[in-house]
Amino acid sequence: MGQNTAIVPEDVETPPIRSSLNLAALRSPSPRIQSLHHDTLSALRDLIVQNELPPGTRLTEAMLSERFSVSRTPLREALKVLSSEGLVEILPNRGARVVTLTLTDIQNLFEVIGALESLAGRLACEMISDAEICDLKATHCQMQATFLRSDLPEYFRLNQAIHTQIVAAARNPVLARTHQNLNARLLRARYMANQVDQDRWAAAMREHELIIEALESREGERTAHLLLEHLQHKFEAIRRYLETVRGAQEAV
């Protein structure tokens, strides 16, 4: 028997080996890493939506890493999510690029989103609770305050929250998921239309009031019609915005 062989008596049980390794921690990113990823994703999405990174802009990992002072790992994860949302296009071995939507692309998306929100409004009238109506009114009041002080980023966030609340009230997860995926691709266009067309911004406030009134009255067909009309008006505002941009480019 060699010198390094351990002898364990037969009548003594060997105690189980206790490992301090946290397997759950290995499977899930730490809260700090998750927060870093979320913050990077939100910041990059805002830059695209608010046109600080215009359509066609190349997004290299080196450039973004320096701008956000983060490593490349959270950037890669953020770009994957933005690609799934239709905001960026991944270029193999060349980083990514902010997606450019044509007017036809935008029209096609609005036709589908209009149908989805119209259906959501009709279903929500059957399912929405009084508490959810109160929440909608509260969000609308907050949005009105941001409108009065011309705080477009916060107004836009609350505007999107209202539409999301209506879709959620329909109690249809397939509808909600499809709406979320398609609407993400239109965020930039919708944001820029409000920035350029102040009259449209004011009209949208009144349209939201009418939509919430119809919801509170549980008028399904009227709510569906108002939502569809609201989105058609939004598309027309975006069309005018894109024509303004094109005219300015041609004049240069």
Descriptive overview:
- The protein has a 3-stranded antiparallel beta sheet with strand order 1-3-2.
- The model is unreliable at 1-29 (pLDDT under 50).
- The protein folds into 2 domains: 32-98, Winged helix-like DNA-binding domain superfamily/Winged helix DNA-binding domain (Arc Repressor Mutant, subunit A, Orthogonal Bundle); 103-245, GntR ligand-binding domain-like (Four Helix Bundle (Hemerythrin (Met), subunit A), Up-down Bundle), CATH 1.20.120.530.
- 71% of the residues lie in helices and 3% in strands.
- It is mainly alpha-helical.
- Strand 2 and strand 3 form a beta hairpin.
- The radius of gyration is 25 Å and the shape is globular.
- Helix 5 (103-127) crosses helix 7.
- The longest helix is centred in the last third of the chain and has 32 residues, at 220-251.
